[in-house]
Amino acid sequence: QEVEECPGAVVQQIFVDNHSIFNTAALAPGSRFGWVYSSANRLHRRTRESFVRNELLFRAGDCLSPLLMQESERILRSYAFIAEADIYAVEMPDGDVHVVVDTEDEWTTKLTAGATLEGGFRVTDLGITEENFLGRGTLVGLFMKEQDEERDIGVTVGLPRALGTRANFGFSVGSTRTGAFFQQRVAYPFVGEVGRYAALESFERREDLFAFAANAEANFTNVVLPVERGNAEATVVARVGRPGDFTVVGGGVSWERVRFANFPAGVRVVPGSDFSERLPADSATIATLSRQITPREATRLHLVAGRRKVRFVARRGLDAIRGEQDIRVGTQVLGSVGLTLGRPTTQVEGASDELWGRVAVFAGTASDEWVVNADLNVEGARLFTGGARPGAFRDVLAELQVSTYWQPRNDSTHTVAARFAASAGWNSSLPFQLTLGGRDALRGFEQEAYPGGRRVLLNIEDRIRFRGPFRSVMDLGMTVFADAGMMFAGDVPFGVDSGFEASVGVGLRVGFPAGTRNVLRVDVAAPLRSGALSNLQLRVRMSELVSLLPGLGDRQMARSRSSSPDAGLIGITPTG
Prior knowledge:
Ubiquitin-like (UB roll), 2 domains, globular, Porin, mainly beta, 27 strands
């Protein structure tokens, strides 16, 4: 049988140059900090060459494919422990090529820390994580996260390429303020933009508090409600078409349970934002929450379908100070519909079936100076009763976010980043509330400021990169930012109309080592009103509010979402 000849060159050999954190070979003789770089490299366990080779989409003897080289680069960069990945071909005299895979590691043993002055100085995040244990890509971490009502103490483990496949396995286990949590996930992702199939299995159980912010008329800052959640999912998704123009189809089964076992006796009020001090709530406060206390349990058969016309471009200095990240451009429309198997458990008399749905729309574009990404997500459910007309839509959540970046062509030290965000909920039968203040909204206001059900935000900042000092060791920069927004009461507990509010601030940005995509921010912000200097908000965080990096989102929206086949909607891939 004849072997089909390549229309172009053949890959004769593949050479992997897997560099450590610092390139000591490029240092001048007698460099002042040479010993520091060498010591850091010796402490760091370099990513194994075999791991890098296994992530490549081509092998020696294959036809040279620019698409597979580009996708292999992007897959390598999607790992948190690889800072840079460059794949290029070197032509040989016979017309074939050698391919060089050049990677540079991140510092992988990470101490995470976060703090705020809101309600007095508090440490909000503390942990240690090894993201590349023994150079195999395995993640092992211990963490403590305390943010408002949330206080998680636990351990997390992540294994890429489980059992020699491209499947990823992960789990987290630990304690919360009121009980325990456990999360487990096995995912076989789409392999870049050339993979045809993906699958996901996951299970989660969590006992925790849901915190409502109180309005200014109350003599307490928050009301907390004990909630127990459980969900599980098994989903398989396929893509038909060609890279850059796919039709997505899939389906699976999901299970969701939400219980309020200790209602109303467990409802507590929090004076002064100190969630360790919780007092019994009075009957009027409990009555305010009652319309969002609807226990449920349902098993759903869900179907996923959509269109994906997405490609990626690489840009530097957007969310990282100097590092490179991959940006989605194109369009994507994906939807999911779920129908209950059997009778759902609700408090609605005669409920026989529930129809749940979600739509996710993405659009993005990029030029030499501009990058724009927009995401719209809408979900909701409708109950049906035997022989009667369907009930009203409930638990409708909608979220729109448009992120814009401008990098002036004649000034490489400035990046102007802006975000417009609108979030809203209607007819919620489960706990739901937004606030206008906090680290993810108006940064000059406390987290509890202006609770409500519909929120509009505009965040804009100028990110300025310093040209030194210690340029070869770390990235340094600063930012000047302004936030503006409005809250509308909606139909949530303690909701208020805020009117127009705004805040301004400055921040320091630090990235270590140089070229990393991880940025530590220290921000100081204040509201634009009289007496603002007495209400300064200091926050330390390891993420950006305006960001295109995966894994970020509105925490207040996420805590109220139903269990759903999100894997099918986002493509089960860490880069979009």
